[in-house]
Write a structure and sequence with these properties.
This protein is α+β, with helices and mostly antiparallel strands and about 450 residues long. It folds into four domains: about 5-140, 2-Layer Sandwich (Beta Polymerase, domain 2); about 145-230, Hydrophobic Seed Protein, CATH 1.10.110; about 245-390, no CATH class; about 400-455. About 50% of the residues lie in helices and about 10% in strands.
Length: about 450
């Protein structure tokens, strides 16, 4: 047993019937380590507080009305909830009341899915045959073996109690690679009204966990199949069935699923993968020769990205990161680019605070998601190396890096500041992007004098 858990078990005493529950048990059976500790006990929360504090443990009353206390030990949070039964759910989010004093089996009966409705007595974790002590009244271990996500009891009742469970089913599909059991899947479209009552912040957390799963394409497909996509991300529905041109093997939605699967499992990259082509349906045109085009889809996708993530109340930092990736996903530097063009691209990335390596990670996922294999990989690596080499020379990429600042330019011109100054700085910026060797006080001053001589005072 974990030493910290052992100490908590000892502090609460044998009558606490302390048990490890939910995802912690599921992950142990799957051979996965890490994650939070979820514990349940027969003790009332006030008794947990008293016994823990008497043993010198830090106890935090995180949700006494729902029976939850968090104990801190060795820098780890252990959330402990009293065995409880839930009353009626009136708002589709939380029970109107909870009842303490029920059995562990009754407590497990209120949980969402069978794979999360198992428990292990804490003391059993020290036993070599710990599986013999598994409490599994709903067949969760069997469903783990069959790789199924099945609701506990009646799925309609489970989803009607808490609309977030619909999203959780899809999220677990992405995280675990399991299938959703047919009756459980069929119940989700019938509970969309309840699902719509979920706070956007909670929905955003679930969607982000789904996207960061090992198989996000499965979770996204489930969102589309059940109607949850239309509920939370309706702007993405037009991508389904939207055909592409010869540059892509897959239609837009299937391409997006591929890119999401291939992108590193980080929130900004996965959200960008999902949203980067959201503007294609609106931008789609077909020319007289029958060729399909998506002119300007990047700008439309940027707008949709900002709309969607703002509505979901994503952090400002994430909105900026994802928007930058979406904005630049259509830029593909190639061998024909000159050094000046490459420096201008580096300048654009700098203006959006988008690291070159981050752009390259996303570009790699986007290109590989087109479905034509990895023949482009050598060219991608060569272009990235070239851009990195140019960036390593620290060329001037912003006005602050010009060899003459605003004061020096005003002194040179003998004028006070005004619109002319910004125009001159932009002219000089373009000049040093073309030739960084010009970024010295002498040459830059000569260029400034030439510009000033061609402009009225």
């Amino acid at each position: 047993m974990d030493p910290a858990l052992h100490r908590i078990n000892e502090a609460l005493g044998p009558d606490a019937q302390l048990a490890v529950v939910g995802g912690t048990v599921r992950d142990r059976l799957l051979g996965r380590t890490g994650g939070d500790w979820d514990l349940a006990t027969a003790l009332l929360p006030e008794a947990v507080m008293v016994r823990a504090q008497a043993a010198g443990l830090r106890a935090i009353p995180t949700g006494l009305q729902h029976g939850t206390v968090t104990l801190m030990e060795a820098g780890v949070a252990f959330e402990i909830t009293t065995f409880r039964g839930d009353g009626d759910y009136q708002d589709g989010r939380r029970p109107e009341s909870v009842t303490f004093g029920v059995s562990l089996e009754q407590d497990l009966a209120r949980r969402d899915f069978t794979i999360n409705a198992m428990a292990l007595p804490a003391a059993a974790l020290e036993h070599p045959d710990w599986l013999a002590f598994l409490v599994d009244p709903h067949g969760g271990r069997r469903d783990l073996a069959d790789r199924l996500i099945r609701a506990v009891g009646d799925p309609l009742r489970r989803f009607s109690e808490d609309g977030l469970r619909c999203l959780r089913a899809c999220r677990f599909q992405a995280q675990l690679g399991f299938a959703i059991e047919p009756a459980t899947l069929a119940a989700i479209p019938r509970c969309l009204e309840v699902a719509g009552k979920v706070a956007v912040e909670r929905a955003f957390v679930e969607l982000t966990k789904l996207l960061r799963g090992p198989e996000p394409e499965r979770g996204l497909a489930a969102l589309a199949e059940t109607g949850l996509l239309d509920l939370w991300l309706p702007e993405l529905r037009p991508m389904i069935g939207c055909a592409q041109n010869h540059h892509h093997r897959y239609p837009v939605w299937e391409h997006v699923l591929e890119v999401t699967r291939r992108a590193p499992a980080e929130a900004d990259l996965r959200w960008a993968a999902l949203l980067h082509d959201s503007g294609k349906p609106a931008a789609r045109t077909v020319d007289p020769q029958g060729e399909t085009h998506f002119y300007g889809h990047e700008a439309i996708s940027v707008g949709l990205t900002q709309t969607i993530l703002t509505r979901l109340r994503a952090s400002h930092a994430l909105v900026r990161q994802v928007t930058a990736l979406v904005r630049h996903h259509g830029t593909h530097p190639g061998p024909g680019w000159g050094d000046a063009a490459c420096r201008r691209f580096l300048k654009q990335l700098l203006e959006d605070d988008l690291p070159l390596e981050r752009w390259a990670q996303f570009n790699l996922a986007d290109q590989s998601g087109k479905g034509f294999g990895m023949a482009f990989l050598a060219g991608h690596a060569a272009m990235l190396a070239r851009l990195q080499a140019l960036a390593a020379r620290r060329p001037p990429l912003d006005l602050q890096s010009l060899a003459l600042d605003g004061r020096a330019l005003m002194a040179l011109a003998g004028r006070k500041g005004g619109p002319w100054l910004g125009q001159l700085q932009q002219f000089l910026m373009e000049a040093v992007l073309e030739d960084p060797d010009r970024n010295q006080p002498g040459p830059l001053g000569e260029l400034a004098k030439e510009w000033l001589g061609n402009r009225p005072a």
